[in-house]
């Protein structure tokens, strides 16, 4: 099974002013990522606004990523749902279109018990493509603690976890009880940009990043340094990015990162409803954080 290491970008979905997807802009964003040394791409995930995308739109976005990536970097396609039947169908679509893995979020709103979660991920993994479990209780209402992750990791094709619990102690437990005891094949990726450095220090494998939409080269450099044990360099980059990292989550993702990318002159556009426009106060925070990166905002 492929081992997933490095910096992976959770791609935004750029929109036009009328709410239609800017597919040409999306193609430019994929090229921007590849040109700046990103290690992998994660299209049609939460950052890509999948709750408000049509299935035909998701399919076209994935087709664009696969064509542009051309096998140069791994593509992990979002395929989660709170319906097991739908999650299986979306994971089959990812496999059929050539994705290297599927990112499958914990079923949201339903709040399944342990047995339900195990059966859900067994059904998805049976599709026959590596599956990255996405653990983010703040959006789903259901955390996956380390003992349950151990059981999930025993399922064939479960290849790793995007850990966005926000709990560094839980991340350490997952690395210790799942990754280390399993020989290291299970990937533990940070789902929180602010915790990428500590996760790497604990023995994690990288990040599925939001801020790398704007600064892919810097996030890739941070992860590369951390994986090499060069934490002095990784620490410098971490603090260089910290202000922007905080600004990128001043409101619900992906609203701030899309505005930051607009400031930088990259395709982004507004988020679809029900996500609203960023507040004036937070827009100022984002603008100043972009400037602090050395990027002169093109939209004032």
Tell me about this structure.
The structure is a single chain. By secondary structure, this protein is an alpha/beta fold. It has one domain (6-227): Aldolase class I (TIM Barrel). The chain is 45% helix and 12% strand. The protein is built from twelve helices and eight strands. The protein has an eight-stranded parallel β-sheet. Strand 1 (6-10), helix 1 and strand 2 form a beta-alpha-beta unit. Helix 6 (146-153) runs parallel beside helix 7 and helix 9 runs antiparallel to helix 10. The longest helix is centred in the last third of the chain and has 17 residues, at 231-247. The termini are far apart. The mean pLDDT is 95.
